[in-house]
Design goal:
Elements (H helix, E strand, L loop, with lengths): L2 H18 L16 H6 L1 H4 L3 E14 L2 E8 L2 E8 H4 L1 H8 L6 E10 L5 E12 L15 H6 L1 H7 L1 H23 L3 E2 L5 E2 L11 E4 L4 E5 L4 H9 L4 E9 L11 E10 L3 H20 L3 E4 L2 E4 L5 E4 H9 L9 H11 L3 H4 L4 H13 L7 E4 L11 E2 L2 E5 L1 E6 L2 E2 L1 E5 L4 H16 L10 H8 L5 E7 H8 L22
Helix pairs in contact: 7-8, 8-10, 11-14, 12-14, 15-16
Length: 492
């Protein structure tokens, strides 16, 4: 029998013994706490000698004969507990000494400081609120194994204060975005996750099936097309913060489900969306760092507006030397990309959009450390964006980059239903030619556009990427509470 299973058996026997004595550790419905551990630490001068009650998990026990010290952890931190046989009596003290690491207890008593100056509760009463049958992992306080941390996030949160801080920061970041938008008249809405036709991005969907309706449905890859329907319906400022699902690979920058913020404003354009992005992201940074500067992977980043702006094709020329002057000559673009060092096999039979993406990933993106708007993307790779007035091959679209990471997508929205149909049909042709990420033709959305959509600016921001940046984490899994992982039995 392994040590872990042996401990499980001993703890199970303790539980059965308690129940035999008429004590059920799982029978308590609540426990009245007077303070958190932090409140006791910060307000000791006022609370010294006063009766207090706390509750939490035992993470350390140090017995010294007739005296025992223990550390109790709650959501705010830890507090030391001191139990003595002459205070509790023989039977209750023996029960106290029989507690295990991980047990959840409530403790009441008077607050004092030890000779070493540590704030401590002199235990007069304790209640076992939940028995931990599984032992905490070895080296619990230094839990570092990423596989264990991601699979058993509850242990990660218990063991690592910094992990809890990351997700506290995530909550503040989302709240800052929500507050900024609602204070400026944006209406927060919810759109369908299950959709008969997916759209709003270039991605493969997850499919599912609705039994009662006898129809195939898709998990949304973006809320965009439904949010635009609301603009058509007269809701002039709308936003949504929610999960989207893309059937793609998993790495340090991608997870199949992630959180996106999308906002749409009638009578605005992509220039307005740039201002909105600067203010939104700046507010998120303020919520975490108290200012507009932070450090990401050794780089000091300043979010003060205005952010740098550079055209996509100019950026490719600047960083790779590739001049894409003819956007209809895919073969020429492919040859130049190969000459610049892109692997020929990855470009075989690929469309212009894919070639541009590879050039950006390889040469441009790593250089965009300070906040930058990369603008004016070709129509071929922007099926939902409005054409630029001065160059019909390009669209009024931008992507914001920070710390070498692409964090969003935005444009002046295409509101011409005839042009939109042509774009969708071109995407359908690309799809028929093998592009699994090409946008499907959505007749209902085109019909909605035919009723008239005002000029509109739209913005999408990846919340997880922004949290990763603002908490200085190199891996997306560090900022998603429960990232998707391969089943243990399927590990290579």
């Amino acid at each position: 029998m392994s040590e872990t299973s042996d401990q499980y058996q001993r703890r199970l026997e303790k539980l059965q013994e308690l129940k035999h004595k008429g004590q059920d550790p799982f029978g308590h419905h609540s426990y009245q706490r007077t303070h958190s551990s932090r409140q006791l630490q910060e307000n000791f001068a006022e609370l010294e000698g006063q009766p207090v009650s706390v509750a939490g998990r035992l993470i350390a026990i140090r017995s010294h004969g007739k005296s025992t010290f223990a550390d109790l952890q709650d959501a705010d931190g830890t507090i030391q507990i001191h139990a003595r046989v002459d205070v509790l009596g023989e039977e209750r003290y023996e029960h106290c000494c029989g507690l295990d690491l991980g047990d959840i207890v409530g403790v009441s008593g008077e607050l004092f400081k030890t000779r070493t100056g540590e704030v401590t509760i002199r235990c007069k009463e304790f209640t076992l609120l939940a028995k931990a049958l599984q032992p905490l992992p070895e080296k619990f306080h230094g839990l570092q194994n990423p596989e264990l941390r991601y699979r058993q996030r509850y242990l990660d949160l218990l063991a690592n204060d910094k992990v809890r801080e990351i997700f506290t920061a995530r909550s503040r970041i989302i709240k800052a975005a929500r507050d900024y938008l609602t204070e400026r008249g944006f209406l927060e809405v919810e759109t369908p996750v299950l959709q008969p036709i997916y759209g709003g991005a270039a991605a493969r969907p997850f499919t599912t099936y609705h039994n009662a309706l006898d129809m195939q449905l898709y998990m949304r890859i973006a809320p965009e097309l439904y949010l635009k329907r609301l603009i058509i319906g007269g809701c002039e400022k709308v936003f949504e913060i929610g999960r989207v699902f893309r059937n793609e690979g998993i790495d340090t920058r991608h997870n199949p489900e992630f959180t996106i913020l999308e906002a749409y404003q009638a009578y605005a354009d992509y220039e307005d969306m740039m201002t909105l992005t600067e203010n939104l992201v700046g507010g998120m940074c303020q919520a975490v760092h108290g200012g507009l500067t932070f450090t990401y992977q050794g780089n000091d980043i300043d979010l003060s507006p205005p952010w740098r702006r550079v055209q996509l094709l100019e950026a490719i020329s600047e960083y790779s030397g590739v001049e894409l002057t003819d956007l209809e000559d895919t073969d020429a673009a492919r040859r130049q990309a190969i000459e610049a060092g892109i692997d020929p096999e990855t470009l075989a039979d690929q469309p212009l959009g894919y070639i541009i993406e590879k050039l950006c990933d390889r040469f441009v993106q790593p250089n965009l450390i300070q906040p930058t708007f990369m603008t004016d993307y070709p129509v071929e790779i922007s099926p939902l964006a409005k054409r630029k007035a001065d160059d019909r091959q390009l669209t009024a679209r931008f992507e914001p980059f920070i710390g070498g990471e692409e964090v969003g997508n935005a444009f002046s929205e295409l509101n011409d239903p005839l042009d939109q149909r042509q774009r969708f049909e071109a995407q359908a042709a690309a799809r028929a030619a093998g592009d699994e990420e090409a946008h499907p033709l959505d007749e209902e959305f085109i019909q909605a556009l035919e009723y008239g959509m005002p000029p509109t600016g739209g913005l999408g921001l990846g919340i997880d990427r922004l949290v990763m940046l603002l908490t200085d984490q190199p891996n997306l899994r560090e900022v998603i509470l429960f990232p998707l992982l391969r089943p243990v039995d399927d590990q290579p």
